[in-house]
Amino acid sequence: MKRLKGLTKELLKLKGFMKELLSNKYGLAGIVLIAPFIIMAVFAPFLTSYGPYETGGLKEILLPPCKSHILGTDDMGRDVWSQLVYGARISLTVGFLASAIGICIGTTVGLVAGFYGGIVDEILMRIVDVLLIMPFLPFVIVLAAVLGPSMWNIIFLLAVLGWPTDARLVRSQVLSIKERPFFEAAVCIGESDLKLMFFEILPCVLPIVFAETVLWVANAIYSEAVLSFLGLGDPTHISWGMMLNFAFSSGVMAKAWWWVYPPGMSIAFVVLGFTFLGSAINEILSPKYKEV
Amino acid sequence: MDGYWKFLAKKTLTTLLTIFAALTVNFFIFRIMPGDPALLLIKSPKLRKENIELVRKQLGLDRPLWQQYLIYLKETLRGNFGISFQHNIPVSKIIAQRLPQTLLLLSVALAISIVVGIAIGAICGWKRGSKLDAALLTASLITYTVPTFWIGMVLLIVFSLWLGWFPVGGMTTVGGANIPKWLDILRHMALPEVVLLFWYTGEFVILTRGNMLDVVKEDYILTAKAKGLRDIKILKDHAVKNALLPVVTIIALEVGWMVSGVIEVEVVFSWPGMGKLIYDSVLQRDYPVLQGCFVIITVMVVLANFFADLIYSYIDPRVRRGVE
Fold first, then answer.
1. Contact yes or no for A139 and B298 at CB 8 A
2. Do the chains contact at B257 and A135, CB–CB below 8 Å?
3. pLDDT tens for residues A137-179?
4. DSSP string covering A196-221
5. Complex ipTM value
6. What class, spelled out in words, does domain A18-51+65-289 have in CATH?
7. pTM of the predicted model, to two decimals?
8. Which residues of B touch A264 (CB under 8 A)?
9. Where are chain A's structural domains?
10. B180–chain A nearest CA distance, Å
11. How many CB pairs under 8 A join A and B?
C-alpha cells in the first residue's frame, strides 16, 4: 500500500514535470522537432514499401520525387525516403545507446570521485581533464579507423569518450550534497558506502544527469553523422550521415537536391530538438536557471 | 603565491599527461589491430626497400613490447612519425606541408567569430528575456547545431555549382588565375569561412550570454547603475570585461571540439589542410599519417589550453593569489 502511494506520488510529479515541459517554449519546440523522427524510427516498415538497400534498374536512377518515390532515388536507384526512415532508426539508436552508456559511466565516476575524495578523486579527475582536452573528433577517427566500420564500434567509442563532462558535473554536485544535514544523518546511522552513494546522493543528482543525458543524445547523433560522412560509418547500416557521404562522393549531388536536403535537415532537426529539450529540462529542474 | 604555483603545476601536469596519453593510445591501438598491422606495414607492396629499414628501426619489431614502446616514444619526440603507406615519404613532411593551411582557415574563423560572437552574446545577456535576446539566441542555437558539413554541401551546391560565384574547392585555381594570388586564395576561402563562422559565432554567443547572466546579477553592476552610469558604459566597462574572463579558458577548451568543424569543412571544400589529409588517410587506411595527424592536433590543442590558462591567471589576479 505504501509502495502504491509512492508510485502515485511519482506519477503526479511526472505529470507536473510534463506539464511544465510542454509550457516551456524550448521544451515544446524540442518535442515537436523530435516526435516525427521517433515515429519514423518505430514504424519504419509501415511507412515505406521499399527496402532501404533495394537498388533499382537503370530507369530508376536519380529519379526526382514522384508518385512511386516520394523523395526520389539515389544514384543506385535506392528509394531516398525509405533510407531516411530506416536511417532514423540508426541515428536514434546510436544517440540513445551511446549517451545512456556514457552517462552511466560518467555518473558512477563522478559519484565515486566526489564521495571518496583524496587520491581517488585526484586520479579520476586527472583522467577527466585529459579526456576533456583531447581533440574529440580526431581521437574518435583514429580509433574508429582501427576498430573498423561498425555501428556498435561507434556506439562504444562515443560512450567511452563522452562521459567526462558528466563526471565533472556529478562530482561537483556530490561535493555540495555531502555538506547537507540529511547526508550527515545518513552517515551517522551507519549506512554503507554503496548505499550512501546510490540511495542518498544519486537521487539528488538525477535531475541534472537527466538533462545532461538528453543533451548528449544530440551530441552522439551529431558525432555519428560526422563519422559516417567521413567514411567511417557502418556500410550495412545506412544512416543519415552515410546518405550524405554517398551523395557527396557520387559527384552528382548538385543534380539531386532531394538526396542532399532531407538527411541533412533530419540531422539538424533531431540535434536541435534534443538540444532544446535538454536546455528546457535543465531550466525546469535546476533552480539556478529559474530566476533568469 | 603558493596557490599560483600549485595551479601552474596542475596545468603543466595535465598538459604532459594528455600528450603522453595520446602517444600511448597511438602506440597500443596500432598493435591491437587485427592481423598484426606492424607486419602488414612491412609487407605493404607500396613501401620501398630503404623505407622498410626505417620502419623496422622505428618500430623495433624484433624486441619485447615495452622496449618497442620506449623506442616509439623516443622516435615520436624526435619528430619521426613514420612513413606514409600511400605517399612513401615521412609523415612529418606531409603534415608540415598541410598544417599552415589549416591554421590559416582556423585562425581567421576564430578571430572573426570571437569578436562578433562576444558582441552579440553581450547584447543578449544585457537584454535578457527581450525579443531581441530570444531571436539572437535561437538563431545562434540553430547555426551552432546544424551539421557543419551539410551546410558546407548546401553552400557548395548553391554558390559554386549552381551560381558559379565561388570556386568548387581547393585553395588556389589550378593552372594559375588571372588575379593576384592572395585574392585567389581569399576567393577559395570565402565559403569555408562562412560555414565555420556559423558554428563558431553561435557557440561564442551562447557562452558569452551565459556568463553575462551571472555578471549582471553582481553587486558592482547595481552600484554602477545606482551611480547613474549610462547602460552602454556599464556594459562596456563593467559587465563585458568580467564576463570575458571565463570565456578565455572556455575558448581554449572548446578548440579541441571546434577542430572537428575545420575537418568537416576541409573535406567538403577540398581545402588542402589537416582535415582533408585525415579524410584521405581514412579512405586509404594510411594509419601512420592518421596517427601523426592525431598527435600533432592533440599537441597543438593541449598547448593552446596551457597558454590560455597562463593568460587567464595573468588577467585574473584571484587565480594568481590562489583563490578558487
1. yes
2. yes
3. 888 888 888 888 888 989 999 999 889 988 988 998 888 888 8
4. IIIIIIHHHHHHHHHHHHHHHHHHHH
5. 0.83
6. mainly alpha
7. 0.85
8. 146-147, 150-151, 153-154
9. 18-51+65-289
10. 29
11. 142
